[in-house]
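Posting this for the archive.
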Amino acid sequence: MNTRTLTRRTFLRCSVATGGGLLLGFHIPAVAAPGKVLADPSLPPATGEEINAWLSIDPDGVVTIRVPHTEQGQGALTSVSTMVAEELDVPWQDVRAVFAKPNRHVNRGREYVTMSTSGSNLVRNRHPHIMQAGASARERLKEAAAQAWGVTRNEVTAHQGVLSAGRHRAGYGEFASAAAAVTLDQEPTIKAYGDWWLLGTEVPRVDVAVKSNGSAKFSIDVDLEGMVYAAVRACPVPWGKLKGFDAAAVSNRPGIIAVIELKPAAGKDGINAMQSAVAVVADSYYRAKTALDLLPIDWDFGEYVDTSNDSLAAAAAALLDQPAKVVHAEGEDPLPLIARTAKDRVVTAEYDRPYEAHARMEPVNATVSVTAERVDVWTPSQDQSLALMLAADQAGVSTDKVHVHTLFIGGAFGGGGSGNTAVTRQATELSKQLGRPVKVIWSREEDIAQGKQRPVNWSRFSAALGTDGLPTAWFTRCIGEPNRPNNAERAISNMPYQVPSRRHERGFVDSHIPTASHRAPGNNQNGFMIEQFVDEVALAGDWDPLEWRLKMTVGMEPWQRVLLKLKEVAGFTTDLPRGEGMGIAVVKDHDTYCAVCAMVSVSRRGQLRVEKMVVVVNSGYIINPQNCREQVHGSVCWELSHALDGGLDLQNGRFVNTNFDRYGLLRIHDMPEVETHFALSQAGWWGGMGEPAGPPTPPAVANAIYFATGKRVRTTPILQHDLSWG
């Protein structure tokens, strides 16, 4: 019997080549000829004259655009390239996308402004300087041609890669060298909406082909000559200490190279700081991981060994009964008003959500090669300039000696990125000690145990109703964790609903769990709470939930726009047969307003199926409708995964459900149909698209469950509740 190693890439190639049945059920968008990206976009083409830091043009007019932002599935390579190409005015088929060099950015005064890819900021806040780079290159090309032809720049036209003035005509490539030497007296302004020729159209993503055929390279794919592998384990209770280990117990196993203690730096406990850990290094990851599992390790679990979900919930319950910091107030103090209101006119509810894991598909990993001359780094970070500085700090060298090679990221959106963990430091330290390239891979258990989690939150809401059934007083108090203070107020303190008297308070429960931003931070947790309470208040006042939201946002154009569009396209009704339900929610996230209508079915025995999600988005503007729809789908999938079957179980100071057998994520057969509509204000403001469809998804589903079953689900994971009816 012959045994063959089947890699991910080989599997994809063979499946496509043979028409493999497993891939036939997937929709893989057709790859259009325009716009291309290399399988390894960290390796730029060898030819081309640099016009500015963002682009170069070769003699044939092919434009290579350097993208400083990571491609983690959100379409950065495509969106940055289209924004530059829009202003440069070059045929899309002549555009190539590569990753910009972090070394250049860090050591040349941050000439890309930022390399961070987070907060739905890439288009929303960065389009001005990205588009300006293309406009500047265009004007430099025109100036170079004007000087050569003896005309003014205003007489030169730049259109689709061709410069022309009267009888003169030349491709961009002919003047690239001259344009590189041009200095403009004043940088040009960027185009206004309505003047676009490429932006706003359906542009297929440039990374579809390489990801579909399996040639795309991720950090975990890196294979260097002489490279060794390391499996690492930190204390299961975060910030605990390594007391000792018996290296002799595994040192004689096949392929074992070293067993090394990783020591934290004194006084450093940030989210990317080195924790006390032990690494087993071997000639293969399997051998390193197997030996690590057999290694006798003695831990000092520290003072948090008795902390659990229950103990944190008890502490939070006590804090919910105490006054906390007021972070938002309008009108009179609502508490006396609520106290004077008849009990049957007061609505009160409590909600909570647990820690949730990032659990991206590509496990946390990093490969680092430290030599006397330089440090080379491959790590899936959302900010490669941060990864560079982490490696420089750990290696004890200047930043000009560190070269980070950006590859594709197998999922991201927050806390799981290698810039937000110690893995880049770990790989750097091990390579420094061993004098050879080291690839560190965290097992899925280590990934979930040591990843930076979505924070916990507990909330209590109260509202008093007037004679018209609308709220006259509204009080909210949230208890979160201190490392992410704003997470305990977003979507709640700034809710749009106009109540005469309201107050929001925020408190904190101490915890040792490292946390970080996850997709739509704060709004993701709190949207689930506030938008369910809105339904409870509306129904208590005998209002239709959609009409209540429309009434309570009168005069707020962006909110009204998405709610009215949802009313038009979703067919929302509370009058469905038992076991069927529709629920709505609307949340603002990253300056984008998103309304969702969920349609669910629940069997008598409580089996839930989310059938369809209708999503209406108002982000002000969009530059690529196709990619925006894809981001909506991804956001819906993300939040359904965590709200339905996610949630970390904290016991004895550590998480105990650290793999997918006990931390559930959405399977493909459970993904609902997603219907996306855009209702754009186009009023001068830009919203983000990578996250906003997520926060209203769980509350819309929970509200739909209520109408299907009569049961209110105020905590997650939703599937842990008894949803049976009959």
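The chain has a mean pLDDT of 92. The chain has three domains: 36-212, 221-302+364-441, 309-356+453-720.
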